[in-house]
From TrEMBL:
It comes from the Eukaryota. This is Pentatricopeptide repeat domain-containing protein. Residues 454-474 are annotated as: Disordered. Residues 456-466 have a biased composition (Basic and acidic residues).
Length: 642
């Protein structure tokens, strides 16, 4: 019995749809299917789909597999993935084909997947996305699944524009005009455009006007949707209908002609455009109260703020706020009170939930202010919320501000991809856990962005990207936003989370925890409690506790940095003249008590034994105490006065 294999589009869609399910059995099966299938133009089907779903780990595995089988990127569909790969894994050598795509060189391959989109579709060049109108029409017409599911799946596979045949297939499955309008609304919600052809415009017009009979005649007529594009053909068909006295066909064609004869209506502003324009106007001429009023309305109507507006908005919100709280505000509102800071925290989180890129400097400003004001519970809460913003449950892509995008490496491409190096047995995830890979080709050491020549410690301050090199040439497109996948480990040295919680901030968190609580009465429950609450329950070690919680979320925290910072703060705490609560006597501040408290906060042993800790403290004190001559003077003056 003869068997007929699917065409390239069908097989590519099949492979991409199942590759999203990153399970060992499915991946092993798909690998065998791919190895033995005759097609080798599948890179642009699978890799971009996995990347768009937030699965960069799977995308890199499939990329490696494709390159091994001489299957290369051929279209701009793979551009976002390659842009991400070149910046966050700079030691991965790209192939010539990938570098050409990345640099937007003229790459033409009429036999490739990008040009095989539609052999019989005369308007295929109009449609963005990976699949031809002919293929998507067959997919939408299939009765094995609902229209809603089919549309959602194709959108997940990268469909961004549909043509007349696809629209016809979707509309034919609906019972009436209302059903067609529901599908049109679904396209709008997903951001799928409908090609501006005569047939599509007629379907949309009849559906919106509630012309059930006209819509039914249009969908069921035997005229191919592409034939409506030729005005001479339409006139000829209209004359033939009148001659044959086919009044329903004649009326249909007359309505189509009338629709085309009407002047193109001025494009009405959508609600999103209108509100964003109002916000821009308010930002330009009005006070922050009016701006917040418009922004509140956008939130209530679920309208997203545009990237440009968000940047101007946040710049207004952070006016007068920097890394150090102002003493004038503390005198006016109290030591720990700052209404402007509270407003900035509230609005920053709201803006971030609109899916726009937030410069990491704003997050650091908020964290430094909370820490320096001693508002540790709020510091903990904001830290958790920032981590959640960069590890969303549904996955997908996370926007990164252009100022925080790492630069592109200046390396020459190689013909083959030799991702050699020390293979590791595990790969990291944002939750901080290690999971065994489902593939034999384990990921390279660049899983955390390091190479063999580089130290394993994460850099304290990564070099800032130059503005001219921040984005690829695709960045000239105002709609292009650089994104990272949700599964990129926080431990990657270029991850925004790693840049926010850098070594300087980690040391500062420990310093704030010791210095701000030293003058307060010790919390008696800090050494004996069953269910600890917030980080403030850990008294002097509240900063250590916060770093331990961040480490559990996947943030890289250098244990040696933590140990060194703790010993330094203990040495400073014993400084003569240092403000200490009366109850914090030598017994309370003894190495034994401090070690027990710190290690409960950290969750495991981190400090040396009591004897070694005492020796290190005595060794550290002279080095640090010389930096505090004024405290010594105050202490000696008090003793002399006594």
């Amino acid at each position: 019995m003869p068997t007929f294999r699917p065409d390239l589009n069908s097989f590519g869609a099949f492979l991409a749809s199942f590759a999203i399910a990153f399970s060992p059995v499915i991946q092993s099966t798909l690998t065998r299917i791919y190895v033995f299938n005759p097609y080798r133009e599948l890179y642009d089907y699978v890799v971009p789909t996995l990347f768009d779903s937030g699965q960069s780990h799977a995308a890199r595995v499939w990329r490696k597999r494709f390159v091994l089988f001489n299957d290369h990127a051929m279209s701009q569909k793979s551009m976002p993935f390659l842009d991400f790969l070149s910046r966050y894994f700079p030691k991965v050598q790209l192939t010539n084909e990938e570098s050409a795509i990345l640099n937007r060189d003229a790459v033409t391959n009429n036999d490739g997947a990008a040009s095989d989109i539609a052999d019989n579709d005369i308007h295929s060049s109009q449609y963005k996305g990976l699949f031809s109108d002919n293929f998507t029409a067959r997919w939408f017409a299939s009765s094995w699944t609902s229209s809603e599911f089919a549309i959602n799946l194709m959108h997940k596979l990268g469909l961004r524009t549909i043509g007349p045949q696809s629209l016809q297939s979707v509309a034919l499955r609906e019972q009436d005009v209302q059903g067609v309008n529901d599908r049109l609304a679904q396209f709008r919600e997903l951001g799928i455009d409908i090609s501006p052809t005569v047939y599509c415009n007629a379907v949309i017009s009849f559906a919106q006007r509630g012309e059930d009979e006209l819509l039914r005649d249009l969908l069921h007529c035997d005229i191919h949707p592409d034939e409506f594009e030729n005005s001479e053909t339409r006139v000829m068909l209209l004359a033939a209908s009148a001659k044959q006295q086919d009044w329903s066909r004649e009326r249909l064609l007359q309505e189509v002609e009338a629709l085309m004869a009407k002047p193109a209506p001025r494009k009405e502003k959508t609600l999103s455009e209108e509100l964003n324009n109002n916000l821009w106007a308010a930002l330009s001429t009005q006070g922050l109260a009016k701006v917040r009023s418009v922004f509140d309305k956008m939130d209530n109507l679920s309208v997203s703020i545009e990237q440009t507006n968000s940047e101007v908005f946040l710049a207004r919100v952070f006016e007068g706020i920097w890394y150090h709280p102002k003493l004038s505000k503390q005198k006016l509102h109290g030591y720990q009170e700052d209404p402007q800071l509270d407003r900035a925290i509230h609005l920053s989180l709201r803006v971030a939930r609109h899916g726009v890129a937030i410069p990491i400097k704003y997050w650091q400003i908020l964290l430094y202010n909370l820490g320096r004001l001693g508002r540790f519970n709020e510091l903990e809460q904001l830290s958790h919320e920032i981590c959640e913003l960069y590890s969303p449950d549904p996955g997908g892509l996370i926007p990164v501000h252009r100022c925080d995008v790492p630069p592109k490496p200046k390396s020459k491409p190689k013909v083959s991809n030799n991702d050699t190096g020390g293979w590791v047995e595990y790969h990291s995830f944002p939750d901080g856990k290690k999971k065994t890979s489902h593939f034999k080709e384990e990921f390279w050491r660049a899983e955390i962005g390091l190479t063999e020549e580089e130290p394993k410690e994460i850099a304290t301050k990564p070099e800032p990207a130059t503005k001219s090199d921040n984005l690829s040439k695709q960045g000239n497109d105002p709609e292009y936003t650089f994104c990272i996948p949700a599964d990129l480990p926080f431990t990657n040295r270029q991850h925004p989370i790693q840049k926010i919680f850098d070594m300087s901030l980690q040391r500062a968190i420990i310093r704030w925890g010791f210095d701000k609580t030293l003058g307060q009465e010790p919390i008696q429950l800090s050494l004996a409690r069953v269910k600890p609450g917030g980080i403030t329950d850990f008294d002097l070690a509240c900063g250590v506790r916060l770093l331990a919680l961040l480490r559990q979320k996947g943030v890289y925290v250098d244990q040696q940095v933590v140990r060194s910072a703790i010993i330094k703060r203990l040495a400073v705490a014993h400084l003569p003249g240092r403000t200490r609560a009366r109850a914090r006597d030598d017994r309370e501040m003894s190495p034994t008590n401090i070690k027990e408290l710190v290690e409960k906060a950290w969750g495991s042993a981190i400090l040396p034994n009591e004897k070694q800790l005492s020796l290190e403290l005595e060794k550290t004190k002279p080095k640090l105490w010389k930096n505090f001559p004024k405290l010594f003077e105050k202490s000696y003056d008090k003793n002399e006065n006594k």
